[in-house]
Specification:
Elements lengths: L4 E2 L2 E5 L6 H10 L3 E4 L1 H9 L5 E2 H5 L14 H8 L5 H9 L7 E4 L4 H6 L4 H6 L4 H11 L5 E3 L5 H11 L2 E2 L1 H27 L14 E2 L11 E2 L3 H4 E5 L5 H14 L6 E6 L2 E7 L3 H10 L8 E5 L5 H7 L4 E6 L4 H7 L6 E5 L7 E6 L2 E6 L11 E2 L7 H15 L6 E4 L4 E5 L5 H14 L8 E4 L7 H9 L3 E4 L6 H11 L2 E4 L8
Amino acid sequence: MTASKRVRRALVSVYHKEGLDEIVKKLHEEGVRLVSTGGTQVFIESLGLPCESVESLTGYPAILGGRVKTLHPKVFGGILARRENETDREQLSEYHISEIDLVIVDLYPFEETLASGAGEQAVIEKIDIGGISLIRAAAKNYKDVVIVASKAQYTPLLHILEEKGAETSLEDRRWFAKEAFAVSSGYDTAIFNYFDGQEASVFRVAADEPMLLRYGENPHQNARFFGAFEKAFDQIHGKEISYNNLLDIDAAVSLIDEFDELTFAILKHNNACGIASRPTVTEAWKDALAGDPVSAFGGILITNANINREVAEEINKLFFEVIIAPDYDTDALEVLMQKKNRIILIRKEVETPPVHYRSLLNGVLMQDKDRSVQTADDLEAMTDTYPTPQETADLLFANKLVKHSKSNAITLVKNKQLFASGVGQTSRVDALKQAIEKAQTFHFDLSGAVMASDAFFPFPDCVEMAGKAGIRAIVQPGGSINDNLSVDYCNKHGITMVKTGIRHFKH
């Protein structure tokens, strides 16, 4: 695969002209004839280089407000002709079509126009027709033609011109063709998703320039992140981010977004091991850490408040992987940056997709994100008693936590502080046992605490255990055929139980 081809004629028609000058100058030095359109032709000629217009090549002017410029047999015939096919060569000669060996083209900025909030007509006009057709034609005929489909490929092309002159190998042309089809498929995906809206009628996702991760779930696994991490965070310190870091970061962001009050959370393996809402960031940190100071080691920290030096000095006493905050005081960063590998992220405002994707078997699962948020108005009393204002606040707090915990899950809360949780258990009874044991390990008094469950209680065993531990209020989805058994126990023992009607399984 080393068949060398020389570029003799190049068609150049681009929207982005940054960096193009070096390329066209080098092509001219190599004796390559340049053909171009509109603004690109003006740009090339402004450099003092000769350039033939597409109109003189085709004999037709640009029409329909510029919608039709290059869509002509004398352009596409010159690109698609197979150089070693005798019939193709005869037809080129018969119709006076010149071969085009290099196509440099990019596409109208459809996604940028859409993101700007422009009206529908402006968005539609940025759906490229000629450019996308040139890309596909040149890429299809990569055995004879070089296609540069984006300014991202300007540098690789310039390197080839500097090293080989106007000669390219088959390996070179095939690589450019691959990159070109990545550009065209991504472009079409963006257009389809615009028309599809939120229907998700078919699965179409495209992402460029993956972020290389240190490793996957385990060190022997390679991993990449396809997305724009830099649009969501500024990493101002620390080592490269790993696959597991990203999972924890995503879980942390999803959790903290549930809270309007000043809140600090510590996560480990996607679950909160400590969280508290308090008037100051230092108080919130200390009470979050008290929830499980053992599990907090090596965890992910997140808050919706700025980090000052006072709390930074407290945080610095703990080994942790990542910290996320809206901002940091300068003297706080001086403290936190003392550990060179510590990942420090500033969170930015960014819109996230409304759906979750998960690959499995030979396909992809897609579901709406669980954006259900319960308020006091959503709590329906199942028992004879109603929760107090403090219990209501704690029940809503606990319910937010259990929503973001691996099923089966139980959370125990008091005064907007996580006392303990039981997560990822095959039995709800085991989840509650785990939570109670952990709370007792760290010497929390569960008297007057509340409990949240991510799903209903099929039997009264959990409420019985909770009552004996001192739990005074419980929130659950409800819906079990045996709800009455749990309610009867609560009524007899002075426990308040409410239901939301919303289950929060998480796998």
